[in-house]
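Q: Sequence in, structure out?
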Amino acid sequence: MATKTAAAGGARPALLVRRLEGPTGRPGTACDFARIAAAIRFLSESFRDHPPLAEVARRAGLSPYHFQRLFTRWAGVSPARFARYLSLEFAKRRLEDQASVLDAAYDAGLSGPGRLHDLFVAIEAMTPGDYKAGGEGLRIAFGFHPSPFGEALLLATARGLCGLAFVEPGGRAEALADMSARWPAARFIEDPEASAACARRIFAPGPAGAPLRLHLKGTNFQLRVWEALIRIPPGRVVSYQALARYLGRPDSARAVAGAIAANPVAFVIPCHRVIRASGAVSGYRWGPDRKRAILGWEAVRAEAAQRAMPSTSNMS
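A: Exactly. Output:
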């Protein structure tokens, strides 16, 4: 496949993306998630009122029948059942066992691989030379791919995935410009075939295989925070303060929050699993509605996996 390149000094991600996007700049799945996000926003604001399906569907711009089908196919549960995963009480209950979650992460050791679903994740930091050079000499392939949470931009070097960002409808140019600014001297090449396999491993994982390798640019402290994040299991959450204590920096919750905000690989490094101590969901680079959607989506699957596990009483 012929590829197109955009070097740091030349024209660039924005011009390149305008050639890549279609008339609307968004695939059908991105449009579907926009409807789901609108419904989740409404449910999170009014779940105590138990709004009828017709009203939630109206917010999503669909008939009740089509909305129910779309939402259930995406979430695995009905909109009414999903609403409970959006409640502050549910978030607070999940925070109650955050100490055990972090203890388990500590027992696993920060040098071991983290896990995303059944996918192992291994981090490799960029060398100090690459860091200082702004990626000079690096070839970074990128592609736009569908995901359960809207369109995603994936970037990868020869050593591993170095970026994942969610893209707002029509926002490909902005997303690529934002991500490419991290490596101003690198050479960016549009190669969706190269990143497609990685996207499938992340968003439609199969049996565990070789680790998904991440090639990250960050300070030592940022890397420590990101390594800790990948040890928070799907369906679980921790607070900024608890994560700071776990890292031995109990007075540095704000610095931890800054490192989380600088996370270059959305979803894989699950910064969405950190919430306020009050249980409130906020502070997500790709929007609070998407953060609520991911947390609820993961909680549904975590509970389903738990129910599918054989109980100890049946093991003999």
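The chain has two domains: 4-24+94-305, 28-80.
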